[in-house]
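Lines hold sequence, tokenised fold; shown next:
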Amino acid sequence: MEKIQPPETHQETLEALKYKLEGIVPEAEIILKAEMAYEINRIKKEKDAVILGHNYMEPALYHSIPDYVGDSLGLSKISAETTASRIVFCGVEFMAETAKILSPDKMVLLPASKAGCSLAESITGEDVRKLKEQYPGVPVITYVNTYAEVKAETDICCTSSNAAKIVNQLDSDTVICLPDEFLAKNIAKETGKNVVFPGHSNGNGELQNSMIVWDGKCEVHDKFSLQDVENVRKQFPDALILAHPECPPEVVEASDYSGSTTAMVNYVQQSDADRYMLFTECSMGDNIAAENKEKEMVKMCSVRCPHMNQITLEDTLECLKKDQYQIHIDETIRKKAKASLDRMLEMS
């Protein structure tokens, strides 16, 4: 992942944003946000800060201040490797926690007092401990979209881009995959495993070749349905449909491609199609459109993540100025969580 070089002057910042976001963001908004972006880029140099931007950030922020943009896996690697004294994570809280877990000596800032996640909040460390008691010896794979206390109770973390690969590398016929029900079901199909919910078996009283799943869901991806796919097919028959693996299995099955946010970005860049529909957080479609002006993102998506939307240029500026909203993690929990993240990075 290459570092992005921001414009040097306010005028260059404004011109760059106008070029990328024309037709996507109103000009008045671009003018206002270019000024804030220039100030943020100036301060981050003074404070030796690196800004990480998730693919779901709103376009004016995504295309102006991050030094690196990407998905959870890519930004996790940057968190572990950066030499900057401060990490500003433009994402949600569990992402900033991951950065702190991997870089405990650095100041990690989240530009919001609380940017949560419905999926991360669907499970606790105590839930994982109870599952391990119920299924002793069964390895626990946990999605990085979880808080530190949950990562601390897991054997290995995963992302949507490496989950199937990690499952296939484990020396176990049965695995526990937490906490996203849809992601786990999609992984189970890819790896040929039976889906089992806690307290149940695969139908014959056995757990051989099974994936034990939790009932957590992302409130964004849970909103996409098979009817949405059918509507796109009818109205835009030439459009390629890309679905995130957190979408329901029937949506993923009916789509043309499924992958992590970065995988979807790469797919659009490398494909020859002219028109696309993304079933994921909808600001990402605008971000891709800004980088691929010859390609069209179908404007049928209005599903925004209320938590990602809490991260703004205004709050990022205040966060940097005041070093506010620092991430702190109990050291015992951090060390245990780091072990599960280290295993993921080693196996990725």
About this structure: The first strand starts at residue 49 and ends at 54. Residues 87 and 108 are 5 Å apart (CA to CA). The chain has three domains: 10-117+308-322, 120-216, 221-297. Residues 10-117+308-322 form a domain with the Rossmann fold fold (CATH 3.40.50.10800).
